[in-house]
């Protein structure tokens, strides 16, 4: 128990360091909004070079020594948001680890998008990238008083040029409305990111995707409604005692073909 507490404290310190490092970079270059953020210019100024190459099984890679580094990005990445987040993630490794003995990182899709158990240095780089691309003051201004739905997540993804997954997670972190973000693959929950204000919270990794969900339709019938639907809370949160039979959520899902996964968001309905 004492070891677990120490580990959690250490992780918290790392995350704080990642956020602070991103904030310092924003201040250093006097960046006042996300539209002014140019990753390539920052990299050039900081001794980082970016190349697009073939990377089997990896989204990105970085090699660095002292104050110089080379970021390699998989040229097959088609989504501009994913490409940008990958660059920012690799920048995170550089700024957070350049004084350590580790001077090479290879990052897969899971490294950048798995929000369950993750290696400390990968989670730290994700935290840096999130804060740099979606700096809390910028993000909060953009989403203020806008009701949550998948359309908003898409707007965030386009406005900040990030992946849909990164946009959804950031909203769950600092958005003003209760939301659950769920990634599923092959009929099983891969991970779930649920904010503190959401009424149901217990959804273990590996839980089966409910048959009432749009995600189940995608995995089993190769088709899925893109519209928001009402779903009983107990369908997803079978083992959560806080969910009553009368609690309903809005559900909306979107397929992620590159990993054959489904990103689902749940938010409260007027029936909740």
Question: Describe it for me?
Answer:
It is a single chain. This protein is α+β, with helices and mostly antiparallel strands. The radius of gyration is 19 Å and the shape is globular. A hairpin with a 4-residue loop joins strand 8 (248-256) and strand 9 (261-268). The protein folds into 2 domains: 2-133, Arc Repressor Mutant, subunit A (Orthogonal Bundle), CATH 1.10.10; 137-268, Beta-Lactamase, CATH 3.30.450. Helix 1 (2-28) runs parallel beside helix 5 (120-133) and helix 3 (80-97) crosses helix 5. It has 10 helices and 9 strands. The strands form 2 sheets. It has a 5-stranded antiparallel beta sheet, sandwiched between helices. A 4-stranded mixed beta sheet has the order 1-3-2-4. Helix content is 42%, strand content 21%.
Which secondary structure elements does this structure contain, and how are they paired or packed?
Layout: H1 2-28, H2 39-45, E1 48-53, E2 60-65, E3 68-74, H3 80-97, E4 104-107, H4 109-113, H5 120-133, H6 136-143, H7 150-160, H8 164-174, E5 179-185, E6 188-194, H9 214-221, E7 229-232, H10 233-236, E8 248-256, E9 261-268
Parallel strand pairs: 1-3
Antiparallel strand pairs: 2-3, 2-4, 5-6, 5-9, 7-8, 8-9
Helix pairs in contact: 1-5, 3-5, 7-8
Distance between the ends: 37 Å
Shape: globular
Poorly predicted ranges: 1-7
Supply the number of structural domains: 2
Number of helices: 10
Number of DSSP E strands: 9
pLDDT averaged over residues: 88
CATH topology of the largest domain: Arc Repressor Mutant, subunit A
Strand content: 15-25%
Q: Compute the gyration radius: what is it? A: 19 Å
Helix content: 40-55%
The order of strands across the largest sheet is 6-5-9-8-7
The CATH class name of the largest domain reads Mainly Alpha
Main beta sheet: strand number and arrangement? 5 strands, antiparallel
Judging by the overall fold, what is the CATH architecture of the largest domain?
A: Orthogonal Bundle
- The SSE order reads HHEEEHEHHHHHEEHEHEE
| Alpha-beta classification | alpha+beta
Protein name: ImmA/IrrE family metallo-endopeptidase
Domain IrrE N-terminal-like: 68-170
InterPro entries: IrrE_HExxH, Rad_response_metalloprotease
Pfam family, one: Peptidase_M78
């Amino acid at each position: 128990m004492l070891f677990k507490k120490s580990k959690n404290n250490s992780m918290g310190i790392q995350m704080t360091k990642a956020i602070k490092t991103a904030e310092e970079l924003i201040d250093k270059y006097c960046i006042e909004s996300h539209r002014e953020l140019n990753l390539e210019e920052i990299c050039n100024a900081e001794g980082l070079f970016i190349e697009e190459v073939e990377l089997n099984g990896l989204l990105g890679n970085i090699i660095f020594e002292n104050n110089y580094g080379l970021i390699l990005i998989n040229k097959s990445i088609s989504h501009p948001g994913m490409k940008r987040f990958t660059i920012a993630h690799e920048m995170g490794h550089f700024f957070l680890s350049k004084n350590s003995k580790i001077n090479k990182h290879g990052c897969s899709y899971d490294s950048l998008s798995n929000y369950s158990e993750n290696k400390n240095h990968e989670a730290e780089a994700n935290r840096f990238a999130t804060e740099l691309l979606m700096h809390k003051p910028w993000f909060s201004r953009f989403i203020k008083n806008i009701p949550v739905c998948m359309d908003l997540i898409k707007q965030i993804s386009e406005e900040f040029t990030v992946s849909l997954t990164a946009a959804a997670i950031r909203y769950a972190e600092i958005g003003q409305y209760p939301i659950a973000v769920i990634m599923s693959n092959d009929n099983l929950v891969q991970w779930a990111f649920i904010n503190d204000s959401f009424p149901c919270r217990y959804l273990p990794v590996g839980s089966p995707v409910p048959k009432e969900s749009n995600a189940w339709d995608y995995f089993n019938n190769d088709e899925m409604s893109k519209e928001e639907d009402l779903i009983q809370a107990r369908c997803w949160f079978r083992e959560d005692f806080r969910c009553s039979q009368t609690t309903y959520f809005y559900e909306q899902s979107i397929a992620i073909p590159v990993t054959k996964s489904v990103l689902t968001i749940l938010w409260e309905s007027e029936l909740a």
